[in-house]
């Protein structure tokens, strides 16, 4: 209908009223810029429908993907960090922890739980990058250690989903002690002959990579996840050479033998079930 017919028939459209679009209705891929509805993005497990870019997700999303009917029992849900070093940078450490708890709804940077995956009971420790960059402090180390103990005592397989920037500086040496503690617990799990699968997601760095993230019977990763110890800038400055293309991506590490294989999020549950069946034989 032409504009003159609209006027003649008394149909008008205001050009001055701006309709506000509520936040959170759309999701834009940071890689290929494809825009889809948030609902569609969630239905595709937070992966781009065009380029398959895997957006970061947290423990709640991984529990929903992996546990049958999203039913699970959380372990040590109320464990929180203390302040043994009375640490303060721009704010006091206890204040920072409380602020993150209020912002994210999480108690710390990892949640642990047990439930059924394809009918078999498993234990999962899933890290949350939103909580101080997924940094590993005393609570993270203790919760993972206790989850491993639970798996060992009840003869269940173990999965740790890593998403971490490294050790938590606010706890200094106490944070570094968690590397040894979690590694020792995984050695006990291995001695019992129980399978442990490590899933490295974007990003997995620092103390996590130096301990539990690389100690799985199978070390697997999501596509294009960044995995390493130090960041590329630090590595480049240390060795004084340009880094190869794709350095520290899951694909690069698979080529070099650090990662056993890469699995799409949509295939994750089925692949894990298959792995546990194979390892147990």
Q: What topology emerges from the helices and strands here?
A:
Blueprint: H1 3-8, E1 26-28, E2 35-37, H2 38-43, H3 59-66, E3 72-75, H4 93-104, E4 110-117, E5 120-127, H5 138-154, E6 158-164, H6 172-191, E7 196-204, E8 218-221, H7 232-239, H8 250-256, E9 261-262, H9 268-280
Parallel strand pairs: 5-6, 6-7, 7-8, 8-9
Antiparallel strand pairs: 1-2, 3-4, 4-5
Helix pairs in contact: 5-6
Can you describe this structure?
By secondary structure, the protein is of the alpha/beta class. It folds into two domains: 16-55, no CATH class; 56-280, 2-enoyl-CoA Hydratase, Chain A, domain 1, CATH 3.90.226. The protein has nine helices and nine strands. The protein has helices at 3-8, 38-43, 59-66, 93-104, 138-154, 172-191, 232-239, 250-256, 268-280; strands at 26-28, 35-37, 72-75, 110-117, 120-127, 158-164, 196-204, 218-221, 261-262. The strands form two sheets. The chain has a seven-stranded mixed β-sheet, sandwiched between helices. Strands 1-2 form a two-stranded antiparallel ribbon. α6 (172-191) links the parallel β6 (158-164) and β7. α5 packs parallel to α6. The longest helix is centred in the middle third of the chain and has 20 residues, at 172-191. It is globular. The protein starts with a helix and ends with a helix. The mean pLDDT is 92.
Please tag this protein with its features.
281 residues; alpha/beta; 2-enoyl-CoA Hydratase, Chain A, domain 1; 2 domains; 7-stranded mixed sheet; 9 helices; 35% helix; globular
């Amino acid at each position: 209908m032409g504009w003159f017919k609209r006027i003649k028939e008394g149909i008008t459209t205001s050009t001055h009223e701006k309709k506000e679009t509520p936040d959170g209705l759309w999701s834009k891929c940071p890689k290929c810029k494809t825009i889809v509805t948030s609902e569609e993005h969630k239905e595709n497990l937070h992966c781009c429908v065009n380029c398959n870019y895997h957006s970061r997700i947290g423990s709640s999303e991984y529990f929903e993907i992996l546990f049958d009917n999203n039913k699970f029992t959380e372990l040590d849900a109320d464990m929180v960090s203390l302040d043994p070093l009375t640490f303060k940078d721009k704010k006091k450490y206890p204040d920072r922890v409380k602020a993150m708890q209020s912002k994210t709804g999480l108690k710390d940077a990892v949640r642990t739980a047990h439930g059924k995956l394809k009918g078999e009971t498993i234990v999962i420790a899933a890290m949350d990058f939103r909580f101080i960059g997924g940094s590993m402090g005393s609570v993270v180390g203790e919760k993972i250690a206790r989850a491993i103990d639970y798996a060992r005592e009840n003869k269940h397989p173990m999965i740790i989903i890593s998403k971490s920037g490294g050790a938590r500086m606010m706890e200094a040496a106490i944070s570094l002690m968690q590397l040894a503690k979690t590694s020792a617990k995984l050695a006990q799990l291995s001695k019992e002959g129980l399978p442990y699968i490590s899933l490295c997601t974007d990003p997995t760095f620092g103390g996590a990579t130096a301990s539990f993230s690389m100690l799985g019977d199978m070390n697997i990763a999501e596509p294009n996840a960044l995995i390493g110890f130090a960041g590329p800038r630090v590595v480049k400055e240390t060795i004084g050479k340009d880094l190869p293309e794709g350095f520290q991506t899951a694909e690069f590490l698979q080529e070099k033998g650090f990662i056993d294989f890469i699995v799409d999020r949509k295939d994750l549950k089925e692949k894990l079930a298959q792995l546990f069946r194979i390892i147990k034989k």
